Amino acid sequence: MRPLESVQSRKASTAVPKKPMVVEFSALTLWQQTGVRCLRVTHFLLARSGLFVAIFLLCLLSERADYETHPPVHPWIIYLHASIYLLTSTGMSARLLPNTSVFVAAVFYIHLAYLMGFEPAFGYPPWLRIRVALRLLGLAGGSLRMLAAGDFDSSRHWDKLGVGLSGCVCALLGLISLPTMTLPNLNTAMHRHELSSAFPNIFVTHLIHWVIGIAFGLAFVGYTFPILVILPQGRGQVPFFAKMVVWADRLACLGWGLTLIAKDANWTYWKAQGVEFWLQNTIILVEVVTIASIAVGASLPWLGRVTKPLHQKKP
User: Fold this and answer.
1) How many domains does the chain have?
2) Which residues face 23 on adjacent strands?
């Protein structure tokens, strides 16, 4: 019996895992078909998000050119960022090294956050620097989460980097959004602006800030707990940790969505605070791309199992 058992165990160890079941597009319900179409359109636009970021940044520099004679950073840095965003957008849309393109774009988003936060030539007040830098860091974290395709594996470095960066951003945004919390080490003006920017007479101001703060706070816990726990050597993926990160993605999307709708879409308020038109548009674009990155990344495993209609298949 032992040789038979060894042969069976050898076959089980070398067996090819079953592929996920493929679903015909026509077999889906009307709502599911609509969802698939929306996800594919979002994925199409998301692959070209670098192009939109480059255009918005160039428009911001063009707006600043009306009242300054020199750009806030050296021209070669501007050209480098614009070129990288165009190249990574091309790589994602044409599927030429898409993972590398996303990772490189995330690195340059972090560098852009550094420039916005610490380059004195921009002339922004500290509260605005923190606000812009956090959005760009959140975009970098969301891009890295898209690489994970809605999953989490502690053995993959980009997974840990993505959840760690997203967790830090969610923690700061959550604390800033809570009405009763203050961050003495940060600029208190930012906390005041975050609380005052919500649309009046539409949202219950304190309630919406509590919801945003709690959503970001719980997302911080879901993101950071799996990377703080040290597993025994040789231990593989933990389903509970992956589920925590999935829920953190959902809570982060809730926080980003409410922040976008309730606060950052209030152009009248931010214009009154002296925020440039294209800078505010860039902030909104960054938040939209962050939400889309997390949502599309989480839907990729399911979306890949849906076959295209016959008239869309290549001959």
Assistant:
1) 1
2) 306
Instruction: Write phi, then psi, for 48 (nearest 5 degrees).
Output: -110, 20
3-class DSSP assignment, residue 23:
strand
Query: Residue 202 is inside which H or E element, if any?
Result: none
Q: Would you say residue 312 lies in a domain?
A: no
- pLDDT tens-digit map of 120-166: 888 898 889 989 999 999 999 998 888 877 677 777 787 888 899 99
User: Pseudo-torsion of CA 235, 236, 241, 243, nearest 10°?
Assistant: -150
Residue listed under structure tokens 């890295």: 144
* pLDDT tens for each residue of 255-265: 999 999 988 98
Angle at 33 between CA 27 and CA 38, to 5 degrees: 155
Contacting residues for 49 by C-beta, under 8 A, at least 6 apart: 89, 289, 292, 293
The answer to whether residue 309 is domain-embedded is: no
- Backbone phi and psi for residue 202, each to the nearest 5 degrees, phi listed first: -115, -50
For residue 12, give the 3-state DSSP assignment: helix
d(C-alpha 273, C-alpha 128), whole Å: 10
Range of the domain at 159: 27-302
Vertex 290 angle, CA 287 and 294, to 5°: 145
Neighbour-count burial for 83-121, b at 16+ CB within 10 Å, e otherwise: ebbbebbebbbeeeebeebbbbbbebbbbbbebbbeeee
For residue 52, give both structure tokens.
């939109």
The answer to whether residue 76 sits within a structural domain is: yes
